[in-house]
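User: I'm designing a mutation panel for WGR domain-containing protein and want to avoid disrupting the core. Could you give me a predicted structure to guide residue selection? Please restate the sequence first so the numbering is unambiguous.

Assistant: Good idea. Sequence first, for numbering, then the predicted structure tokens:
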Amino acid sequence: MIRMLHKNEKRWSYWEAWYDEKDRLYTVHYGQVGEIGDHYAIVAEQIEGKPTHVLQNWAEEMKEKGYAELAKEDWQKLVVSFPHLSEADVEMRYAIEALLDECLGRTGNGHSDGGDDSRDELAVICCVIDMEKAIAAVQEAMSAARLHDGLVIWRLQDDGTRVSLYPSAC
């Protein structure tokens, strides 16, 4: 997958593309960060060249339009956590990771980056672009999935400390 961003006057635009070898399909997803984007698919037989070359050529075209790939250190870390109740919570963590991948991915605002259930909590780490929009999307997704009880959202600092974002610290 190639994910690129362009900062215009007030907002980020995203463009991402990937190749699904099983379906032999290229998918392009684009829009404004934090909003559900548009996408289209192209059957591989309609494009000449190896998938890695095709994707790289598209990325070069997007660079000419002002898009750039984000470096790993440019992503902000968001932690979504719940009290850890039982061994069954491990399976729940995987479901939450998938849910967060979906809610952040469809808005071009990031992805789940794994989790941890070894402490007294179930935690999923996400890499996001726009923290404020990510918090709103996570709250909405967790509420729709009826997973808002006990929800805590943190910003993970570079030194590993956490800053509480939701519920708001008094």
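For picking mutation sites, this is relevant: The chain has a mean pLDDT of 90. The first strand starts at residue 2 and ends at 7.
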